Amino acid sequence: MMIAADAARIYIGRGFAPLPIPCKSKNPGREGWQHLRMVDADISCYFDGRQENIGLLCGEPSGGLVDVDCDAPEAIRVASAFLPTTNMRHGRDGKPDSHYWYRVDPVPPQIVRYKDSDGTTLIELRSTGGQTLVPPSVHPCGEPLVWEDDGEPGLVGSDVLQNAVASIAAASLVVRHWPDGSRHDTALALVGTLLRHGWTEEESVRFVRVVCECAGDEETQARLKNVGTTRERLVKGRKATGIPTLRRLLGDDVVNRVIEWLHITKSVEADPNGGADIWIPTADPWPAPLADAAYYGLAGEIVRAIEPQSEADPVAILVQLLVLVGNCIGRTPYFAVEADRHHTNLNVVTVGETSGGRKGVALNRARQPLALVDGAWEAQRVKGGLSSAEGLIWQVRDAIYKWEKGKDGGDPVAVMTDPGATDKRFVATETEFASVLRQFQRDGNTLSNLIRDAFDRGTLETLVKNNPAKATGAHISISGHITKDELLRYLDSTEAANGLGNRIAWLCVRRSKELPDGGEAIDLTPFTRWLDDALHTARTIGEMHRDEEARALWHREYGRLTEGKPGLLGAMVARAAPIVLRLSMIYALLDGSAVIRAPHLEAALAIWAYAEASARWIFGDTLGDPVADEILRALRAAPSGLTRTEIYSSLFGRNQSAARIGRGLASLVEKSLTRWEREETGGRPGERWFAVCRGGA
Fold this sequence. Notes:
Layout: H1 4-13, E1 18-21, H2 43-46, E2 53-57, E3 65-70, H3 73-82, E4 88-92, E5 95-105, E6 112-115, E7 121-126, E8 131-134, E9 146-150, E10 154-157, H4 158-177, H5 183-196, H6 201-214, H7 220-235, H8 243-250, H9 252-261, E11 267-269, E12 278-280, H10 297-306, H11 314-329, E13 335-337, E14 340-342, E15 347-352, H12 361-373, H13 375-380, E16 382-383, H14 389-395, E17 400-404, E18 413-418, E19 425-430, H15 433-440, H16 447-456, E20 460-461, E21 470-471, E22 475-483, H17 484-490, H18 493-497, E23 505-508, H19 525-538, E24 545-546, H20 548-562, H21 567-572, H22 576-590, E25 595-596, H23 598-619, H24 626-636, E26 642-643, H25 644-651, H26 658-670, E27 674-679, E28 686-691
Parallel strand pairs: 5-10, 15-22, 15-23, 16-19, 19-22, 24-25
Antiparallel strand pairs: 1-2, 2-8, 3-5, 3-7, 4-5, 4-9, 6-7, 11-12, 13-14, 17-18, 20-21, 26-28, 27-28
């Protein structure tokens, strides 16, 4: 039987990057494994000839080698119907042909994992930052891994492979939830959904066949006939069931994931009368799963321990934990950027589709490990505190003095009337962040300005005469939650433009699984010594810097982080660079390091990629101009367009001036979101306005 050392030599010869892994384990068990690049001369240093496991680094380290890991039985069954041909596959007795290998150009930028609503992983596209256990290893269950085909990996484009994996995820999810009854109605609704959103008849037939056959549906052929008949109904302009019926039969969560993974979003539907394309006004897709690189180090280990026993989104647990750690560390570590010093205070607001997004659970879970190592801070310095500017200053106030007359008419003396806050660290938690945004709309409210100052400088004061409180050296972080509808309703365009919105990272979250009896208790004591040591070390660190590898990565990413983007989305992500910097500082400090290394920056970039995708889901094409945004919504709902008169009279009820509407239309034209045509009316020519489809004309 081949041993790991011999396999490593073969893998290196093929241009792959092998990785030593302990026997009967899948975890490398060593820090910095992502950066190991072994050559023949190194093999004896990492493999001693005994029974050991071996993995391959995915993505860039192995020349673009990417692993498609079919985890669920349903994914294994449907995979071959969607994946391109490859001559490199492996598995084990319990899961044969569960790993398909490809060389991909360009290399997918991150690991993508698709899960069912109960947390079951269906399939994973494993690229740079990930590793896969390979033969001749022994799986932790005791089964040896074997090559089903040990030839060359298939050559494929990144988009092709990512779309194939998404199709497998969607098909396997539908198979898992294919009903015992109502199969005919479910198949009709599935077909209607696919055909309405740009799928060809051939593509729809393949998808439905795979689902029905893998679900063991005995009437597969009858289901396939539905494709042709449904297509005829749509072409003739007759009704056909679709997403609403599918939601009723499979449930909202399943359907939401399917339409997200199949990119049933911004698309056009053929007019059955042969006219122009019709805009289907649907939202940007929910962000792809957070890349594994974000779960680096201690923070990732803690989240992985908590996640199986919590309904909270692991994204929410992770970012809340980083916010808390960054605040608990305090203001001693800093990173100098020109004349500014950046510290580890962060503002994060999680955004749910509905109010039922387990909004308080993630924060409470993230507080648990901090309570074990710094109970006084966790109990006294993490609480609600964004009701007013004065209230926020009071939490971190300096000592307050007032002048009193000296004795016997002597010079005035300063007398302390309040000793001030002895701890300038403070985390303002707001599970109803909409109430904070409503505060900003009140005349004279200065809380917005104060939050900006807290992020930038740590020096806070107001101009209120009867409130002498001032704060210097304040270390304030924010942890909040809001729904998408509330955020769009209450975030004034002024707050976005003046920089409050982009000093907050907005991240989409939703319930990860259902735990009717709640999760079990989690023993976090294995992490407390590690966390306690990291916090104490961090407080002894002053100026931080990047090593050469991280510096090169920062230079490559800096242009993308600082480039401008249009509309409200652009305003909300304009401070990507400082947020990524602060996240990378926290990851480094959790490693007890004053030096930001590549894994720390990669973790921070992964979180920001998710945050930016979240902002795109939340804000989309919104411009932040309520008049322009309302016009755009109306035009997208009117395939035949609206005249300027209809916009003025019907849409706004003559409550907006013609000049104001004109500015809104001009803004939409500038962003290529609308177009207009001259319309002959028998008198003075009119204008008819149309929404421009983002996917085409």
